[in-house]
Structures are given as C-alpha cells and as structure tokens.
Amino acid sequence: MKVKIFTEAGKSIGYGHLSRCIALYDEIYSRNIEAELIIYGDVDNTGLLNGKAFRIEDWLNVEYLEKTLSNEDYVIVDSYLADYKCYEKIALQSKRALYIDDNGRINYPKGIIVNPSLNYRHIDYSYMPEERVLKGSKYVILRSAFCADEEKKLNKSVSRGLIIMGGTDIRNLIPLLIKYICEKNPDIYFDIIVDSFQYAKLISTNKLNNVLYHKDLSETDMYKIMYSADIAISAAGQTIYELISTKTPFIAVQVAENQKNNIESLMEYLNSEISLTYNEDNFILKLQQKFFDLKQYENRKKISEEMEYIIDKKGRKRIIDALLGNIIDTEGICLRKVKKKDIIDVFELSNDDFVRKHSINTNKISWQDHVEWFYNVLEDEDTVFYVVVDSRDSLLGQIRFELNDDSAIVSISLSNKLRGRGFSKFLLKQSIDKLFSENSKVENIIAFVLEKNIASIRLFTSFYFKEIDKNGSVVKLILRRQDYENRLLSYR
Predict the structure, then answer these.
(1) Cα–Cα separations (whole angstroms), residue 357 to 144, 229, 364, 399, 450
(2) Which of 84, 100, 252, 483 fits as disulfide partner to 78, beta carbons 3.0 to 4.6 Å?
C-alpha cells in the first residue's frame, strides 16, 4: 500500500498547502504506511521537508499522472491549480482519491472531499454523496507538533511577539511591520519568520535589538516559537489554525483572495475584531490600534478563551481513516454525557442544513449565541444531554432532554453519516433507557415534531409515542413510562 500526495508550493504559491500535506504525510507514516509527496513549484523552504520522501515534479498534466499512478495507490490532492482532467485521471487510475478543498473550486469526480476549514457552509457539495463530504473543525489539519496537549500560560504582560506572513511574504508587508510595530514596541522581543530571500535582505538592513529573523524552521521549532509568543501577527492562511491550536492571541491579515473564508470564520467563531485586509484604507493605523488593544491582558484572555475547543487536533486522523476506508466505525457507536470539548461539534451539527430544515426554528445559529447556550446547558441540572460517538470519540449525533416536573422534552439530531442507516431507533431507545433509569421522577417524554417531518414522526410512533395534539404545523407526541415498561415486559 502506498499513499501519494499531490500539492504545490513555492515563492509565488506559498507553503500553506504543503504544510498541511506534510501533516497528513506524518499521520500516514505513523501507521507504517509508505507515503510520498509530489510537489509542483519552486520549493526552497527545505526545513519543512526534512526527513520526508518527496519529488519536485510538474504533475499538473494527465500524461504525467498516467505514468505515475497505479490502481493500488491511495491519493490525496491539495491544489488550487489542477484542472478537472487531472482530478478525473486521479479518480479513475487510483484505488481511492481524497481532495482537500477550501472554497468549492470545482465539482470533483468520484472520491472523498475534505473541507478542513471553519467556514464551509456556503459551499454546495450536493453533487457528492453526503457521506463522502467531510467538513468543518473536525477535519482541521495540524502538523504533528501542534497536536500536543501542552497548556499555554497566558502572561499578564506582553514580552514576546511573533510575525509570520506565510511561507512567502507575497505583499512584502514585513518591512512595514518592522517599522511600525517592532520599532514602536522596543520592550517586546519579536520573532519574525521569513523565506530565504527576505532573510538575506533583512539580516543586513534591519538590525533592531528586539528582532530575531528565522528561516527554514522545522515544525518543532515553529511550535516552540509560537507557543512562547504572547501575541502574533499572521497572514490568514494555514497558520491561523496553528495559532488557534496553541491558543496564541493574534491579528490575522488577509493577503490573498483564498484567505477570505478564513477571515469570515474568524469573525464568526472569535467574537473579537482581530482581522483586517492588507490593502484596506489606513491599514497600518488600524493594525497599530489592534496591536495596542491586543496587548491588554483582558483582551488577550478573552480571545484565548474563545479559542478553547474550536479545534480538537484529531482532524488528520479522521481524514486518513476516511482515505483508507474507515469513514465511520459503526461497531463502536454509543452514547455518553456531553463534555465541554464537544462545543464545536454540537454547533456544526446543529447548523447542518438538514437539521435546521427539519427543526421548528429553521434559522442558523450564531457562534456567540451557541457558546452562551452551550455553557448554560452544561450547568443546567434540568437538561440531560447525551452525544452519539464512535470508537474514536467522533461526534455523530446529539440527544437532549429538558426536564420539567415529571416530564422531559426530547430532541434528537444525527450526523448525515448515520441518517438512513437504521441507527435512530437504536439510539433513541438507549437514551430513553438511560433517562428512565437515572431519573426516577420522569414519567412522560414529549416530542415536538414538524408535521412535514414524516421520518421523525414515524420514528417516535414506532417507539410507542402517541400523538396527542397538533398546533399549526407542529405535532406533539408523548411516551408514558408505564406504557414503555409494559411494552418491554411483554417482549420478555
């Protein structure tokens, strides 16, 4: 078995795609599976590739792929340059293909689509079977060093700063940042990440005592610098996910059109104004103001807390499981009590198009409203909240009971990976058994379902719920404990 990873990188392209492909490479290698990176571009950042099996090739043509691929190869493609013919050839000539996609660039052929970003809901993947589209925070890709569970200490004052404008500073912003941020903050020691070309130029022309330049960093060195930083200024590419994973307060600068989705996701998930675009009016003045604001401890503390649980650091494991054929482990599906770490998964499931369409309230839920609701629910003794997980603890559904005297109102929503596969009744029974056994005062379970949601009505009525009322388009059903226990006894 061999996995071939096709991507691009270089001075004019950047290194974000290569960075996340290296993370997938490491995950494959950790499973004792042979992997190879095949890269298009003028790569000079050799620190990223230390110890990796790679080739620099012009793979963006069908003829090359024809000669390179066999039907025993598993393939990952992370590209914004390859055309449909390349993807089609890969799909036809490989054992299984997986495509990394940030923005719905093309309609992909047969395979698996992974959108490893927080902002994915506006992209239409309806042409692909739902179980073949993996998207959202559960699939954010992090390099090995950034998967560590080390707890970052938030210092009261800012003594170390980090500036990184991607693998290549395509807008040449670093000289401006040195002049207007580093020089203006001599009490802060700055690590600045640059490419080889910038390094040679800056090391001779910008010799500030509070600045140290770095090039060709290994991921371990990059992690150490990021982990030690109190504050960062970063391009809005792959690096922002690494900053979030280390809970490093940062300002994100959009320097390319394909970073727009990342900026929008920051605005949704982090309730702080930490982003701007490199060419907007008064860019430097706005950046200086944001930097000043972020130096304040309470602002950094707020952002660091907002980053909690956005990324669970298991994305690359889930992606390689999917590539190798383990899209879902149905053997290990079970219920457990909800935990703080489930906040982002519950948010994404709650905002799933199918779930919202069949909810009584069809409006999308904002992240800020969700955070407030979620933490209130965790503290609420009158809410019993179970989540559905597989053996890898990946969240596949939620079942919630709101207790009121001797009654409990139930709501259930499942991931598209479980829908239509016969799990609803099994999981509903498990949750009701747990509720009745752990809450002796509950005598009735009530469900409110939209009249047009025939599948849910059938689910509840097949499970001994009886329709007792209808208010407009909403049907009210009830399950009485006595009826349920009598039914169970009759089957013994």
Answers:
(1) 38, 43, 10, 17, 10
(2) 100
